[in-house]
Design a protein that fits this description.
- This protein has 4 helices and 3 strands; from the N terminus they run βααββαα.
- It has about 90 residues and is an alpha+beta fold.
- It has one domain: 3-Layer(aba) Sandwich (YefM-like fold).
- A hairpin with a 2-residue loop joins strand 2 and strand 3.
Length: about 90
C-alpha cells in the first residue's frame, strides 16, 4: 500500500486513481498523519458489507433477550399477527 500526502493526491489525482484502479489501496496523510484511505471499488464494497454486518451483530447483541415466559407461536400465528399489523 502506498502512502501519499493529501497535497500530492490533489495535484496528481489521475495517477493516484490509476494506482487504486489497479487494485492497490492508497493511504492519504494530512500533516504526516494517516487520515483516510482510497480503496478499489470492489474492496471498499466488501469492507462496507463486513463493517455493516459487524454493526448489526453489535446492535443485536445489545437487544434484550426474549422473554422466556412468552408463549411459543406457530408460523401460522406469526403470519396472522404480521397480516393484522399491516395497513
Amino acid at each position: 500500500m502506498k502512502t501519499i500526502s493529501s497535497v500530492e493526491v490533489q495535484n496528481r489525482f489521475g495517477s493516484i486513481a490509476n494506482i487504486v484502479k489497479s487494485g492497490e489501496p492508497v493511504a492519504v496523510t494530512q500533516y504526516g498523519t494517516p487520515t483516510m484511505m482510497i480503496l478499489p471499488y470492489a474492496l471498499a464494497t466488501e469492507a462496507l458489507r463486513d463493517y455493516n454486518a459487524r454493526k448489526l451483530v453489535q446492535f443485536m447483541d445489545a437487544m434484550p433477550s426474549a422473554n422466556p415466559d412468552a408463549p411459543e407461536l406457530s408460523l401460522e400465528q406469526m403470519n396472522k399477527l404480521v397480516h393484522d399489523v399491516r395497513p
